[in-house]
Design a protein that fits this description.
203 residues; 8 helices; elongated
Length: 203
C-alpha cells in the first residue's frame, strides 16, 4: 500500500487531476464504468489530497464538474440512440434490465438518478438510459447535479478523512453500492408489478 501511494505521489499534480477527472467523465460519457469505476479514482485522489499532494477543494470541484458533464454527454448519447441503446455493446448483456430501468426512469427518474450514483454499473448506464427514455434534459440536469454533488462530496470527504486507510473505506462503499442496487431493483420490480397486475372491476 505504501509503495503504491509512493508511486502515485510521484505523479505531477496536474497529471493526477487530469486522470481523475478523465476517468470520472468517461465513466458515463464513454461507459468506462463497465471497466474502471470512477469512484476508485476519486478515492485515490482524496487520499493523495490527504497526503498533501493534491488540493482537496480543487479535487472536489473537478470531480463534481466531471461527473455532471460526463453524465450530460451520456444523456445525449442515449437520446440520439433511443431504444437501440439497449441492444448495443455492454448493454446487450443486460437488455431486459435496461428496458425495465428505462420504463422506471420515465415515470420516477429523479430518485433513480440520485440513487444510481452509488453503484458503478448504474453510474455508467443511468444517464444514457435517461436520455433514451425521453426524460426532459432540464429534469435530468437537476437530479444529475444533486446526485453528482452529493456523491462527490461524501466520497471525497470520507476518503480524505480515511487517508491511507482507503481500502477499508472502499469495502464499506462496496456494501453501500450493493444495498442501493438492491433497493433500485426492488423498486423497479414493485413499479412493474403495480402497473401490470389486473385491475379489479368497479363495484
Amino acid at each position: 500500500m505504501n509503495t503504491l501511494l509512493g508511486y502515485l505521489t510521484a505523479v505531477p499534480a496536474p497529471l493526477a487531476y487530469a486522470v481523475i477527472g478523465g476517468l470520472v467523465f468517461a465513466e458515463a460519457a464513454l461507459f468506462f464504468g463497465f471497466v474502471i469505476p470512477g469512484e476508485t479514482a476519486v478515492i485515490i485522489g482524496a487520499v493523495l489530497a490527504a497526503l498533501g499532494h493534491l488540493n482537496v477543494a480543487v479535487l472536489l470541484l473537478l470531480v463534481i464538474g466531471a461527473a455532471v458533464i460526463g453524465d450530460s454527454v451520456g444523456y445525449e448519447i442515449g437520446k440520439k440512440l433511443g431504444p437501440r441503446l439497449t441492444s448495443i455493446g455492454p448493454m446487450r448483456r443486460h437488455q431486459t434490465r435496461a428496458e425495465q430501468a428505462m420504463a422506471y426512469l420515465h415515470d420516477r427518474g429523479g430518485r433513480a438518478l440520485v440513487l444510481g450514483r452509488w453503484t458503478a454499473f448504474l453510474r455508467a448506464v443511468m444517464p444514457a438510459l435517461a436520455g433514451a427514455s425521453g426524460i426532459r434534459y432540464r429534469r435530468f440536469l437537476l437530479f444529475n447535479v444533486v446526485g453528482g454533488v452529493t456523491w462527490a462530496t461524501i466520497v471525497v470527504a470520507l476518503a480524505y478523512s480515511a487517508g491511507a486507510s482507503y481500502q477499508a473505506l472502499a469495502r464499506q462503499l462496496s456494501w453501500v453500492s450493493s444495498a442501493v442496487l438492491a433497493l433500485i431493483v426492488l423498486a423497479i420490480g414493485w413499479h412493474l408489478w403495480r402497473h401490470r397486475r389486473p385491475r379489479r372491476p368497479a363495484t
